[in-house]
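Hi W., the N-carbamoyl-L-aspartate complex you wanted:
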Amino acid sequence: MLFERPHLLGLEGLSAEELTFLLDTAESFKEVSEREIKKVPALRGRTVVNLFYEPSTRTRTSFEIAAKRLSADTVNLNVQASSTSKGETLSDTARNLAAMRPDAIVVRHPSSGAPDLLARHVDCPIINGGDGSHEHPTQALLDLLTIREHKGQIGGLTVAIVGDLLHSRVARSNLHGLRTLGARVRFVGPPTLVSPFFADLGAELVHDLHEGVRDADVIMMLRIQRERMTGRYFSSLDEYSRLYCLSADAVAKAKRDVIILHPGPMNRGVEISSTVADGPYSVIMDQVTNGVAVRMATLYVLVGRRRSETGDSLGPGAEGGDGSAPLQRAATGE
Ligand code: NCD
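Structure:
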């Protein structure tokens, strides 16, 4: 097994080998979703808790489908409507959840660092489903998988990530993953949303959209995250979209075989025109499909491995496997 970490809290610090292993595992799980009966017994009898402190449709559903396709039981906890509103702290919620013996907890939280805190209070794998403006590792993995599928490799590509970089956990996770796998990354947006700090993390900073997407192999558009903004970062949404909305004109500046990504939810007409979102270069629906495979891989790698550690003979590593051909073992529950 090439991924020995107990949790997936972020892509920062993961090696190229670890990233490639997760992507290869995800690729092998894609086939399950093409079957008529979309289920393998890999995590039968395991319980995955989705602990969401922020509204989410896509990510929560994607994790739930992934867990179900691995035969795990899933519990969805929408915490806005629950304990926090009654004054419970995150660490108390964590301790209470841990006492129910889940096998993994997927957590989304408006505060950066919440998944790390949780990981210190429970002894099951924690998967970060997006924390504040910090990281969103499974989103970046599905982006990397989509890019690799379309381009064959990630090393050597130029990737322009455009929009509200300052508040984007998707951009941060992608920056770490893309740089580690050898891509050039440009952060493109108004100076108020592209902090000079990103240059220290290895991004090139560009403030003009047309210049930023010039000769890009990949363009990733980001939503303006109004829910995370505390001040005014541009004079009006109208002005922002005049300068930064990805139109066919801007796309024409990129490579002829450019692909266009967006993590969703999309604000059509604000950061991306409908012509581009629904056009021939868009791979946005492939991202959604790959999201399920990436989350299956993450759950399988983190939870499936623990079976063998706990002496369960059904564990994928029980026969001393090296993590190769996970699907064969997942398919038989071995
Ligand atoms: C992203 C998120 O929540 O950070 N969306 C997602 O996971 N599908 C990006 C966003 O909200 O704009």
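Confidence is low (pLDDT under 50) at residues 311-324.

W.
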